[in-house]
Amino acid sequence: MSHRVAEPGAASARLGDRAFRGLTLAVGMGLIAVLVVVLWVLAQGGAPALARFGPGFLVGRNWDPVHQSFGALPYVFGTLVTSAIAITLAVPVAVGLAILLNEPVGRAVTAPLASFVDVLAAIPSVVYGLWGLAVLSPAMERHVEPFLRATIGRIPILGRLFSGTPSGGDLFTAGVVLAIMILPIVTAISREVFSVVPRDLREAAKALGATRYETIRMGVLPYARPGIVGATMLGLGRALGETIAVSMVVGGGRSVGASLFAAGSTIPSVIASQFLNAQGIGYHRPALLALALVLVTISLSLAALSRLMVRRTARLLDGGSVEGAAEGPALEVSG
């Protein structure tokens, strides 16, 4: 009975695999430990404010360090509103760009567009803020916002969003800046998702007589929907945490209302502007730490949703069925 002797190279490869597995496990556990420490520090630091103000901290509107009265609602509202504006404006453009970059329209068109998107991702946040302050805000105040107020502002109910006096430094301008900032990440991820749509699906649609538009609308987009949602969630996470650019154009107010033309603030902007000057006594610094805890909680919730979308996309790439992509007719070509 013969015994096979393990080759030295195979043993070395197995040892390398075990070492790499152990190293990655240690790094992963270290990241989890860092996250736990961050949450612990924020919870411990913000506990005095949360204990003092209770649920009123999240629904209160007054933020007065002099009289030690703190309510986080204006900053939570500003964070959610500016992020919602950014997603509403950026996602349709990003998905359209991703589709165009994956279609055979010629490198004369796709190469400059791809380079443009990459350049947007490399621009620092402070540059976006300076551009928004010097160029975008005056343009919004003089042209865009008056036009929106004169047109959409006359529509019942919806017009309330575009009521008020245009100022340029407001929630709407901050949302536009955020939309430009998250455009590269949403475009890049959506482009990767579209690139793995099976070629057979496209060919089958064309064989049934579908036009290019019908192929994309009824074949490509339903198949790639989980990945698009995941890209949107990641872009939303980026928008929620942006600080410098938003601080320069959001106006610094504490508005909680329907109008997008009101000056506001976000959680990152108020923490960045007040934390260094916050006194060690009283509730000012604990209130800022409690705000940071609220922001981290929102971000972690979005990260969990993004992870679910990534898993669904992974099942799609492996050939598994995904709800919404496999159920129901993927293509309907009338003839």
Description:
Mean pLDDT is 83; it is low at 320-335. The chain is 70% helix and 1% strand. The chain has helices at 8-53, 56-59, 73-102, 107-122, 125-150, 171-195, 199-207, 212-241, 244-249, 267-274, 284-317, and strands at 63-64, 69-70. With 335 residues, it is mainly α. Strand 1 (63-64) and strand 2 (69-70) form a beta hairpin. It is globular and about 70 Å long.
Number of helices: 11
Estimate what percentage of residues fall within beta strands: under 5%
Main beta sheet strand tally, sense and closure:
2 strands, antiparallel
Structural class: mainly alpha
Which overall shape is indicated by the principal axes computed on the Cα atoms?
Answer: globular
> CATH H level: which superfamily?
MetI-like
What descriptive keywords fit this protein?
mainly alpha, MetI-like fold, two-stranded antiparallel ribbon, 335 residues, globular
Outline of this structure?
The chain has eleven helices and two strands.
Task: List the SSEs and their pairings.
Blueprint lengths: L7 H46 L2 H4 L3 E2 L4 E2 L2 H30 L4 H16 L2 H26 L20 H25 L3 H9 L4 H30 L2 H6 L17 H8 L9 H34 L18
Antiparallel strand pairs: 1-2
Helix pairs in contact: 1-11, 3-4, 3-6, 3-8, 4-6, 5-6, 6-8, 7-8, 8-11, 10-11
